[in-house]
Specification:
It is a single chain. With about 120 residues, the chain is mainly beta. The protein has no helices and eleven strands. The strands form two sheets. Strands 2, 4, 5, 6, 9, 10 and 11 form a seven-stranded mixed beta sheet that branches. Strands 1-3-8-7 form a four-stranded antiparallel beta sheet, with no helix packed on it.
């Protein structure tokens, strides 16, 4: 079992920055990859960025060059540094951890970008 708790969301003006954190607890050693997803009202949940245990990262084209995903050395905290935020980045951001047999989700944190 893996538990995930996100934090760091809030209200920011366009062009501003936020840093999201996701703290994992439980069977941390079983995690293969962690990532950030987001869901805007009326839209499907979409991938934002992913960080694998091998150290590779991937980003959605819409956030490439503006967002940076990283993990701490202990491997139990995932970060998402978001710069030059746009109103279209407004969504609930979810953390996801993938093990060999299951995927776990956090409760989400709201990010609102005003124009």
């Amino acid at each position: 079992q893996v538990q995930l708790v996100e934090s760091g969301g809030g209200l920011v003006q366009a062009g501003g920055s936020l840093r999201l954190s996701c703290v994992a607890s439980g069977s941390i050693a079983s995690i293969n990859a962690m990532g950030w997803y987001r869901q805007a009202p009326g839209k499907q949940r979409e991938l934002v960025a992913i960080d694998t245990s091998g150290g590779s990262t991937n980003y959605a084209e819409s956030v490439q060059g503006r967002f940076t995903v990283s993990r701490n050395n202990a491997g139990n905290t995932l970060f998402l540094e978001m710069n030059n935020l746009k109103p279209e980045d407004t969504a609930v951001y979810y953390c996801k951890a993938v093990t060999r047999i299951w995927a776990y989700w956090g409760q989400g944190t709201q990010v609102t970008v005003s124009s």
